[in-house]
């Protein structure tokens, strides 16, 4: 039996969140395309250590549950240059010679964020051992309920058709499909308040 209790992610949860997301994204098509082959597990850990290392945890928006984690950002959020510079070594460790592609994809996706106020769900992952048993749905339900309470739509990029199907079940609709720098397709998806 896999528990689906959802709790706000505290700063002290950083290690657990990094491990969960690195495990969950082992087969992700977009990260597989971006990361050089070899040392994949270490590269994913470096990537998520840099991503989670900023102001992502501790404000109540991001969540953890047994086996799962979701990163959520407030309106207007952008990964600051200062943050990226502070984690430059980790990004190099993660992406190596593919770093220009990683930066380019990130910048292209940031340009596509909605202009209206919204919450941004950047990563959701459930470790392989806990998948298909409602953990991801519980995390999504908690996030969308809070967006509704705040009167804000929720925005995300789906990296596979199967993931997009899960998001559609939670009220997201596809607003565009993009392939920045020739990446595998990413569905830009939005959920209106009460969707
Ligand atoms: C996507 C993910 C967070 C869903 O969490 P979950 O706990 O498995 O989801 P639930 O049990 O609540 O719902 C199952 C649904 O999730 C989606 N899903 C996507 N990949 C899945 C997988 N490998 N195993 C099971 N479900 C998956 C499907 O829509 C599935 O429904 P289906 O069986 O009818 O196709 C999880 O599978 C995961 O971490 N996948 C790898 C990382 C990833 O792709 N993250 C999202 C990037 S946009």
What does this structure look like?
- This protein has helices spanning 14-24, 29-34, 40-52, 81-86, 88-95, 99-111, 135-150, 161-169, and strands at residues 7-8, 63-65, 68-73, 119-126, 154-158, 173-178, 186-191.
- It is of the alpha+beta class and 195 residues long.
- The protein has a single domain, classed as 3-Layer(aba) Sandwich (Aminopeptidase), CATH 3.40.630.30.
- Strands 1-2-3-4-5-7-6 form a seven-stranded mixed β-sheet.
- α1 crosses α3 (40-52) and α3 (40-52) runs antiparallel to α5.
- The longest helix is centred in the C-terminal third of the chain and has 16 residues, at 135-150.
- Coenzyme A (COA) binds next to β4, α7 and α8.
- Coenzyme A (COA) binds at residues 24-25, 28, 124-126, 131-137, 158-159, 162-163, 165-166.
- Residues 4-191 form the N-acetyltransferase domain.
- It comes from Nocardioides panacisoli.
- This is GNAT family N-acetyltransferase.
**Overall spatial form:** globular
Bound molecules: coenzyme A
Alpha carbon gyration radius: 16 Å
- Helix fraction bin: 40-55%
Side-by-side strand order of the widest sheet: 1-2-3-4-5-7-6
The CATH architecture can be given as 3-Layer(aba) Sandwich
CATH hierarchy, class: Alpha Beta
Helical/strand content category:
alpha+beta
Distance between the termini: 30 Å
What's the CATH H-level superfamily name?
Gcn5-related N-acetyltransferase (GNAT)
Please provide the count of β strands.
7
How do the helices and strands follow one another from N- to C-terminus?
EHHHEEHHHEHEHEE
Mean pLDDT: 93
In the CATH hierarchy, the third-tier topology is known as: Aminopeptidase
Strand content: 15-25%
Low-confidence stretches: none
Helical segment count: 8
The biggest beta sheet reads: 7 strands, mixed
């Amino acid at each position: 039996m896999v528990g689906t209790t959802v709790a706000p992610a505290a700063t002290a949860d950083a290690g657990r969140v990094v491990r969960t997301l690195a495990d969950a994204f082992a087969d992700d098509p977009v990260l597989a395309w971006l990361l050089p082959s070899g040392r994949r597990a270490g590269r994913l850990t470096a990537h998520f250590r840099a991503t989670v290392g900023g102001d992502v945890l501790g404000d109540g928006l991001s969540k953890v549950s047994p086996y799962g984690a979701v990163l959520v950002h407030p309106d207007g959020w952008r990964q600051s240059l200062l943050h990226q510079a502070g984690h430059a070594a980790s990004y190099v460790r993660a992406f190596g010679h593919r770093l220009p592609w990683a930066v380019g994809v990130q910048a292209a996706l940031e340009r596509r964020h909605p202009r209206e106020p919204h919450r941004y769900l950047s990563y959701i992952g459930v470790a392989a051992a806990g998948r298909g048993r409602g953990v991801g749905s519980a995390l999504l339900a908690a996030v969308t309920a809070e967006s509704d309470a705040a009167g804000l739509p929720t925005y995300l990029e789906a990296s596979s058709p199967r993931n997009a199907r899960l998001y559609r079940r939670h009220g997201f609709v596809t607003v565009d499909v993009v392939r920045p720098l020739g990446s595998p397709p990413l569905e830009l998806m939005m959920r209106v308040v009460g969707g």
